[in-house]
Amino acid sequence: MFPVELNDWLNDMNKICGYSIEEYSYMIEKFHGTLAPGILIGGFMVDLAMKKKPKGELFDFLCETATCLPDAIQLLTPCTYGNGWLKVVDVGRFALTMFEKYTGNGVRVFCDVKQMELYPEIKGWFFKQKIKQQQNKSALISEIIEAGHSILSTSIVQVDPTLIGKRRRGAIGVCPQCGEAYPAKDGKFCLACQGTILYSKILS
Amino acid sequence: MFPVELNDWLNDMNKICGYSIEEYSYMIEKFHGTLAPGILIGGFMVDLAMKKKPKGELFDFLCETATCLPDAIQLLTPCTYGNGWLKVVDVGRFALTMFEKYTGNGVRVFCDVKQMELYPEIKGWFFKQKIKQQQNKSALISEIIEAGHSILSTSIVQVDPTLIGKRRRGAIGVCPQCGEAYPAKDGKFCLACQGTILYSKILS
Q1: Torsion angle, alpha carbons of A155, A71, A68, A121, to 10
Q2: Cα end-to-end span (Å), chain A
Q3: Interfacial A residues in 9-68 facing B (CB < 8 Å)
Q4: CB distance from B184 to chain A under 8 Å?
Q5: Cross-chain residue pair B190–A104, CB shorter than 8 Å
Q6: Per the CB < 8 Å rule, is A92 touching B31?
Q7: pLDDT at A130
Q8: Which residue intervals of chain B bear CATH 3.30.60.80?
Q9: In CATH, what class is A4-167?
Q10: Which residue blocks in B134-185 are alpha helix, DSSP H?
Q11: In chain A, % of residues over pLDDT 90
Q12: Nearest alpha carbon to residue B44 among B21, B11, B67
């Protein structure tokens, strides 16, 4: 028999934010559609962030990619894209930061490419060395579970003040061109009527 | 007894994508944290889009605001921010488009401010005429449920080709500055190392 603490630790080793791999896989499939490798890795990233988070009670997330990773955050934390507690600045890096919502003190978790040498399937997938049809998905998923936190690194960061706090839309006006409500701070017309491309045709 | 079709129609009147208001409210609270008025309206918007959608089997969503509305889409459809079937172009309009994923043919649903005159609580909230503490939330929620689709309008649109299809990151490189993986098409360095502001300090 292991002491209770060690038992807890061993149990915890195979969990992602308290969920078993099976439970988390089910959650991924239900929300995201398929058991995408990126969300599984993302689960370990959120888990590690929670274990290394700085002091504080209320945390937001910053995600550096729009691909897969935001869904891991949305599944495992109260932070969603629509409630504003998850912010995405898509610089294309597979990294997230969990930060105290008022001070911006946070822990950044990123995929450490140097640590991937031990895991050829992960490396091949991450660097797109094989096309999807050539990947061995079950070997890839097994490697991700085996690797756990070991392909991740962390750093302590201060999130830029421009990314802290609630999105404030300010006063609402009615756009004189499209007749819809929009944040008046955007100018005389809404951003769509100023030229942001959304539609090539409005048919009726 | 009403004929079966009329009964179905009457039952359907009080449902959002097949869920009762109570069920959907529970889903909102569980995912989004609070029963935000915007996601309740968003539910009616997704519901209307599904009823008016053009022919096709596979649909994506385009959302014109980052506030609240993306969560209604994520809750009620298979489209999430992380799986790429929900795209957000934040022009600050409370509008969404459900479009056939290959052709871009779609139905756009937006809040029609002219129709809000009958609903003073909705109008007051939508145009931020009252601060949050002065709002009568239960009256607002009741008005939203009563209003249903009646404060919404639709148009038939063609989503711009630049917004159709999967985000393609292309080949992956290692940024010579930060040492992390990034989409090589972004240039010699990743966008963060090129100056996109994320952190004011990286402490360790």
Answers
A1: 70
A2: 72
A3: 31-33, 36, 39, 62, 64, 66-68
A4: no
A5: no
A6: no
A7: 81
A8: 168-204
A9: alpha beta
A10: 137-147
A11: 82
A12: B21
| pLDDT for residue A139 is more than 90 | yes
CATH of segment(s) B168-204: 3.30.60.80
Classified as helix, coil or strand, B143 is helix
Interface contact flag, B88 A68, Cβ < 8 Å: no
User: pTM (2 decimals)?
Assistant: 0.92
Tracing tokens 């989503």 back to the chain, one arrives at B159
Size of interface A-B (CB pairs under 8 A): 216
Residue A6 contacts B, CB cutoff 8 Å: no
Domain with CATH 3.30.1330.130 in chain A: 4-167
HEC sequence for A49-106: HHHHCCCCCCEEEEECCCCCHHHHHHHHCCCCCCCCCEEECCCCCCEEEEEECCCCEE
Structure tokens at B142: 């009741």
pLDDT in tens, A18-60: 999 999 999 999 999 999 999 999 999 999 999 999 888 899 9
Q: What is the ipTM of this complex?
A: 0.91
Residue with tokens 């489209």, as numbered in its chain: B79
Judged against a pLDDT cut of 60, whether residue B2 lies above it is answered with no
**Residue B11: which residues within 8 A CB-CB, separation 6 or more?**
none
Residue B168: the pLDDT is: 76
Residue matched to tokens 């890839």: A140
